[in-house]
Amino acid sequence: MAAIYSPTRRSEVYKDLLVRQLKEKYNHLCNGVQTIPYIRDRLHSVKKIFVQGGIEYLAGSSWIPLKSHHDVFSNPNIQGKRRILVAGAGYGKSTLTLQFAYDWCYSVQESYLKDVEILILLRLRQLGGVKSIYRAIKQFILPRSSQFNESDLESVIESSSSVVVILHGFDEYPDENSIPMSDIMKMLMAPVFRHFEVLLTTRYMPKKYPPETKVIRLTGFDDRARDEYIRKAVASEVVGVADRIRRRLHENPVLEDLCQVPLFFVMFAHMSHESKTFQTFKTVTRLFQYMVTCLHSHGTNKMGTGNAQQHLMFEKDHRRLDKVAFEGLSEKYHRIVWKRQEMCEKLGKDFYEHYVRIGILIEENVLGNVDRQRSPSTYQYQKEVRFYHRIFCEWYAAHYFAKYAVGMDAYHLITILQCIDPFDLQYFYHFVCGLNSSAVGSIMECVKKNKGGEKFAIMCILEQDRHDESTLDAVSYLCSKPIEFKPEDTKLLQRYTAQLLEIAVKNELFISSVWLKNCYSTVDFSGGNFIKLKSNFLLPVLTTLKKLWIREDGRKITATEMTCILLYSSKCEWLEELNLVNCLLPQSFMAEYLTDLLSRNVKVLWYTALRRPTYSLSIVSGVVKHKYGGRVLTSEEYEMEVEFFRQEYRPLETTLP
After folding, report:
1. What pLDDT, in 10s, does the model give residues 112-163?
2. Looking at residue 15, what DSSP letter applies?
3. DSSP class of 233
4. Do you know which Gene3D superfamilies this protein is assigned to (predicted)?
5. The sheet that has 520-523: what strands, in order across it?
6. All residues at 6 or more sequence positions from 254 whose CB lies less than 8 Å from its CB, including other chains
7. pLDDT in tens, 223-252
8. pTM, entire model
9. Are 311 and 285 in contact (CB under 8 A)?
10. Count helices and strands in the chain by DSSP H and E runs
């Protein structure tokens, strides 16, 4: 670029020009949000459709809520140069990154970003083979006519007083393990670009990252967020729409839990608003199947009936697309973007164009063949194609595998699945189990050795409408391990876990132990027929349960609560132990109605803050005794326990009515 000013003035001019070009790109992105695949004639501004969902940061081993997305950069507890924002598929990472770009472009008053000189937003799926961040900016953000070269960009950005870099979609980044290391990986792992503030978004945590990195997560939509989205994006001027959609959710509890995932709720809300019919759904597979059917139906109606037969054939027979999707996900480094010509050749031109029209496949113009030795006039835009969302890729890949799995022995199935990470591609496994019940055993073998694999397996098993012998074998295996409920669990996971336990009870399969970890709320006072969790989910009586653990760090349990817990326990016919951990129990309680526990020799143990079973409870007399020796706990000893409890849990101490 020509130098016509003093060095200082030239630097300011270049910086102003770069900011204008960045904002031009981000404005285009922020004003072209497509809420669901087929709505192309009504693109939205991110300002119109962005809704504040749940967001938390990690402090030690606890997740602490943030008030808004602005806190990601401004909250004093998560200050630093490196942040990772992690969330599952469909939880709104893409929309959030666009909202950050909007905040910067329009200097939103509440936003930390209003005072940032340079904001760089890069989509990592596009950066395969691009080692330099400055080349990435040149190729994927700046207009083709921009006269900035990589050296100019480096000079301007390095001289800026504040730079924020948002790297979106690390789980889709093709060069994670490339050699030599790209600038993207250097930002994460090496002490370079340290003056940049970096926010990385991803489905899963990178294998390596600096210890000072702050971790944030998205937790999805609650009722308030869902209502706000309906008001802002679905039918702001139509009376009764929000009530109708809310009523449909409440009539179908599983669907309501599924709609904690923003992508599912957004698609459901728009489709439910436009459709007079309504179905109930018990699994993710059935819900997604309904959504895909709606996309095809809407596309056929919009394009007319001239090619209705061909459209129906494309909807029913998608084997070639299934194969493309599966091959993309099963490669060592997932492939989620294809050249348009390549995809046309694989699918057939008519099929390809149909899936583009209905919105399942998305075309993007990407500037390619950038080379520092070439002039800007030689740069070429190329059309690339991807799925509207990666969950759609998992849907079609699951169809391929579900058909492929028929008749194949478990060894070969497990070998194939080893290259598809269940925690990165969890919906693939959901869909496979929902489409082909015979695959459950192989999937169990694939995931059960992984940390957290039991919970994942629970979700997969409950994707089935029927429970055959292989399903019951899987239930029996899972129930032989400790089953946990935690506050960070989604409501859907809690519901599926409870359903798993109910299947075990119905089929008289023993449940080794259930842990309620800091998620117990209360027991049904009227009859002890269920435990209420803090999520408001109700856990019924589990007659085949062997051991119940209730851990409530820093909580005081009242005498009335204690009686109700014992009453619930008395209804668990196979119970051998009730264990209460890290909570403060009353010194005495009413127990005259609970002789059934004594007759069955059920142990009731209290693990104090010392993390050992110090005391047992006398069910006959309703007092606390020393576990060893059976001596009744004196008032002085109890007061010592109370004081120790207060010192240990001073920040956490709570009492629930």
Report:
1. 999 999 999 999 998 888 999 999 999 999 998 898 999 999 999 999 999 9
2. H
3. I
4. P-loop containing nucleotide triphosphate hydrolases
5. 520-523, 530-533, 538-540
6. 280, 281, 282, 283, 492, 495
7. 889 888 888 877 665 567 777 888 888 778
8. 0.78
9. no
10. 26, 21
